[in-house]
Amino acid sequence: MRAVTRLAALLALVLTALVSPAAPSSAAALSAASAACVPDPATPKRQFRAMWISSVANIDWPSRTGLSVSAQQTEFRSWLDLAVQKRMNAVVVQVRPTADALWPSPYEPWSQWLTGTQGGNPGYDPLAFMVAEAHARNLEFHAWFNPYRVANHDDPSRLVASHPARKNPGWRFAYGGKLYYNPGIPTVRDFIEDAIMDAVTRYDVDGVHLDDYFYPYPVSGQAIPDSATFAQYGGGFSNVADWRRDNVNLLVRELDERIHAAKAHVAFGVSPFGIWRNAATDPLGSRTSGLQSYDSIYADSRRWVKQGWVDYLTPQLYWHIGHAAADYAVLTAWWSEVVRGTGVQLYAGQAAYRTGVSGQDPAWQDPAELSDHLRVNRAHPEMLGDVYFSAKDVRADRLGGFSRVVADHYSRPALIPPRGTAGAPPAPTITSVTQGPGGTTVSWQGTGAASYAVYRGEAADPCLVTDARNLLGTTRGTSFTDPSSGQGTYHVTALSRTHQESGSFSVVVDGPSASSAWGTSAYSAQRHGADYRFAAPVAASDPAWFPAAVPATGSYLVEVWHPADPGYNSATPYIVSAAGGARTVLLDQRTGGGQWRSLGTFTLNAGTYNVVGVSRWTSATGYVVADAVRVSASP
């Protein structure tokens, strides 16, 4: 025993002198390298990209009523495939267009836009199907609800007999040829919230989204018929306008509370009309001269932001750059100032429906107009993404306008901006990198993650995971196939449900660099990958080295994989090139094969160098084996 101890000590001294990592970076040098990274504004790492998919009046989906289940599902998959093709990462789907439902709701009838008959069962659960299909493509699914609209006509007898608005005539009013729920009745507000929360609690939606239809848009010569309601419920308000705004505020505030109480990760967002108030009316307003949603539809969207009642806002900025009454550039700057410092995320609602359409302003005949909007956005760090109205206009790509957007701004995928302050999941660990006819497949293991991001690049690149130039894609699975043949090291990070990203990495090196004295074998079924190396013990230094690219100086878990056999070595020396000097760990290779075995956690310097070696210098008998090494950022 004493002789073995002396040999191990001598071995450690010799190996400390032999191991010299290739230009390890100090913490200061690493910090300087990170600071040197200048992200490309055309490839932002974080950007919300989505399109609205409208069901009302069959604008987008289903394309018409009465389609078979198979046809409806095929159509919807094609919309999701379009979103993926355009490198979007979310869809906003209208699931309650006219006080009805695209799911089996206990509160409201099946939507007429599915079968052509309100209350008609479509033969499947569209919402469950849509959420599953979106998540299969790692697209966020934001369920879009119109809160107050009952019908695009004003004849209650045309509603199905079981419709709550027909059974409770006091809940509704007619205005401008349409039917609406009365926002001033507390029972109605509770009912609307309950109907929305049914979808939230029963389905795995990522977001709840309200559009801009609150109180009806004004119709010339008509007054909203709610004077009796104001008389009954408006105590404490000196005028009907403030009362109406409070009714809408209560809906927004209460929905925010109920959604997050049920599922903290679900985002709550609103897409208000693009003008809150004009500066001529209110010094806090924008330098515009259009309809004021605060006064006309009683939507105090600025207050929702300042009170934190929403997670995100998507104002409908449907005007061109330079518009006389509502300049896109002016409104973008104004909304950016509104959300600054609040924690509320800002996305721009974009008018894809205007591009190349006759009768629109000449600016919309320029295929670069939409693309120029996103260039304007770059001047405002608060502007975190865009949502396009609507899906059919994205697909139409008139004048090539949307193709221009993709070419100029969506050349790489992007992660959704993180929401909230939750922690990131643990880093995944890469288990294999294999070549196949379809490309290189990277596989990994992870826990607690909702999805993963896959990068490929050189470890020395300070922008490795800073912008999207190295981002290959995202997935909810645990493998990813890279069809390209680019060079570099693969890195995989884990993302939470609210898109916090693990700030670490894991890499597997399958097969070492070794001298000719090391043989190659594929005999053991416990091997990692195609083969492994083996050699007889010798009283000399002849290690098999596993090089790896360590992205940053820090704490890392080092694990090894080897096949086991009773004839293998009982004290195989593993050398870890730790910061401050090599560390040696002896491992019994006679048992414990075919799995990852921990050597321990070590501080490693940044850089690309021989991180782990398997030495032949041991007094024990039996082959020493070098198969695979895994280096992971320590949790």
From TrEMBL:
<dbReference type="Pfam" id="PF02638">
    <property type="entry name" value="GHL10"/>
</dbReference>
<dbReference type="InterPro" id="IPR052177">
    <property type="entry name" value="Divisome_Glycosyl_Hydrolase"/>
</dbReference>
<dbReference type="InterPro" id="IPR003790">
    <property type="entry name" value="GHL10"/>
</dbReference>
<protein>
    <submittedName>
        <fullName>Family 10 glycosylhydrolase</fullName>
    </submittedName>
</protein>
<feature type="domain" description="Golvesin/Xly CBD-like">
    <location>
        <begin position="514"/>
        <end position="631"/>
    </location>
</feature>
<keyword id="KW-0732">Signal</keyword>
<dbReference type="InterPro" id="IPR017853">
    <property type="entry name" value="GH"/>
</dbReference>
<feature type="domain" description="Glycosyl hydrolase-like 10">
    <location>
        <begin position="48"/>
        <end position="365"/>
    </location>
</feature>
<dbReference type="Pfam" id="PF25275">
    <property type="entry name" value="Golvesin_C"/>
</dbReference>
<dbReference type="InterPro" id="IPR033803">
    <property type="entry name" value="CBD-like_Golvesin-Xly"/>
</dbReference>
<feature type="region of interest" description="Disordered">
    <location>
        <begin position="416"/>
        <end position="438"/>
    </location>
</feature>
<feature type="signal peptide">
    <location>
        <begin position="1"/>
        <end position="22"/>
    </location>
</feature>
